[in-house]
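Deliverable D2.4 — example input (structure tokens):
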């Protein structure tokens, strides 16, 4: 082991001296490798950033992989059947979704249609019935009111969608219901309440009266539009349960269930008995599917980057062969004084490996600097560039690419150097 370590150290030192002595050829080798290594680093960095952006909120919006989701059909009695089945259960939670407006009565919302506050979807809420669709606020003036999506929950949804509490607290399902519904806002809705001063009056389609809600917390839910969450038993004090599940009032019902819960067959049987057809729960695998798609794209782009890297390694090979041809007498003399063939091969290979490492360091440094420049210049207009960090897994890939290219470009010249006969020095 000590003998091997000594040979390795000798080859490395002589290889570094060779790099210093032939700076121009080292530079040309680095130019050949640079684009290939940079392509590998950029592909890996881009894939890492894309994966982090795409998968960061997918569980919040779609659900944890393995969760089963059932979407309620619009048949009479379905909402009550769901509420009766999942009440007080922890392995299944129903979400009764509808729209609400908080603020001045008789006015159009600041964000009509429940759009994000920095966007304009260009339309109000539509309510449809047997007579057609209409905007309940048509002709009303704009005022201090915020429109949002609201989800009334039968229990804690977080085991199925891991919402992250940012401030305040999450809904307490263990306490008695209150007349003033407790709301937990998502980050976009909280932005609206910070930006605008609106009266604490909430109205929903089909409600018997306007409510006075109380905001208890803010969560990150992966939804870019204003959204609020509250307890179902606090909302049904003011609005009949049948109205919440009515698609004509802009409502819908979703049930999130654990994969092995007995709720699924019971609920499907009840809904089938009410006249629903083709009722079935679907298993959430969004994260896995997105990962598979991203990995496929990464492999495709890595294959293209590898082709550029091989072309760069061919340039290093060409320079290495030319260098060995010029140093035949030097290597023959070293063999004559007892230098092992392995050390001669190690000298050439060390030069190409060090060249590959220097190229990788340059490519990684340029990628890090480029990402910071992009974040500085465009971070304010492109949210995905805000607080973005360079994935160091891409840096590791760049180092590996540099070493592989160094081996590919230096292996044949190293073999040629090791096979130079001692008699060559006599001819010289």
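Example output (designed residues):
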């Amino acid at each position: 082991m000590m003998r091997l370590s000594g040979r390795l150290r000798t080859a490395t030192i002589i290889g570094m001296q060779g790099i210093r002595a032939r700076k121009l050829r080292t530079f040309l080798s680095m130019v050949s490798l640079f684009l290939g290594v940079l392509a590998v680093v950029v592909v890996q960095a881009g894939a890492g950033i894309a994966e982090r952006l795409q998968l960061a909120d997918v569980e919040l919006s779609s659900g944890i992989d393995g969760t089963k989701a059932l979407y309620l059909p619009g048949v009479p009695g379905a909402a009550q059947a769901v509420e009766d089945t999942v009440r007080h259960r922890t392995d299944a939670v129903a979400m009764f979704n509808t729209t609400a407006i908080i603020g001045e009565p008789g006015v159009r919302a600041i964000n009509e249609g429940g759009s994000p506050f920095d966007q304009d979807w260009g339309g109000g809420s539509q309510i449809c019935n047997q007579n057609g669709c209409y905007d309940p606020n048509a002709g009303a003036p704009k005022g201090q009111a915020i429109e949002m999506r609201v989800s009334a929950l039968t229990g804690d949804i977080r085991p199925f969608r891991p919402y992250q509490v940012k401030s305040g607290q999450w809904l307490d399902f263990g306490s008695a219901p209150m007349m003033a519904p407790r709301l937990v806002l998502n980050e976009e809705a909280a932005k609206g309440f910070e930006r605008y001063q609106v009266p604490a009056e909430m109205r929903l389609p089909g409600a018997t009266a306007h409510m006075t809600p109380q905001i208890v917390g803010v969560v990150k839910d992966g939804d870019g539009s204003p959204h609020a969450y509250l307890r179902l038993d606090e909302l049904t004090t003011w609005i009949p349960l049948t109205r919440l599940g009515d698609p004509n009032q802009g409502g819908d019902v979703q049930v999130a269930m654990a994969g092995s819960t007995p709720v699924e067959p019971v609920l499907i049987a009840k809904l089938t008995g009410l006249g629903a057809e083709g009722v079935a729960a679907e298993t959430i695998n969004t994260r896995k599917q997105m990962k598979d798609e991203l990995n496929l794209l990464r492999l495709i782009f890595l294959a293209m980057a590898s082709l550029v890297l091989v072309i760069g390694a061919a340039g290093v090979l060409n320079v290495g062969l030319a260098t060995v041809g010029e140093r035949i007498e030097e290597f023959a003399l070293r063999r004559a004084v007892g230098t092992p063939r392995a050390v001669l091969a190690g000298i050439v290979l060390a030069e190409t490996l060090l060249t590959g490492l220097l190229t990788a360091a340059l490519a990684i440094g340029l990628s890090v600097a480029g990402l910071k420049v992009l974040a500085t210049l465009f971070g304010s207009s492109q949210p995905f560039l805000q607080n973005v960090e360079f994935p160091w897994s891409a840096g590791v890939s760049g180092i590996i690419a540099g070493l592989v290219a160094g081996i590919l470009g230096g292996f044949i010249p190293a073999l040629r150097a090791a096979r130079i006969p001692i008699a060559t020095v006599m001819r010289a």
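Residues 255 and 338 are 79 Å apart (CA to CA).
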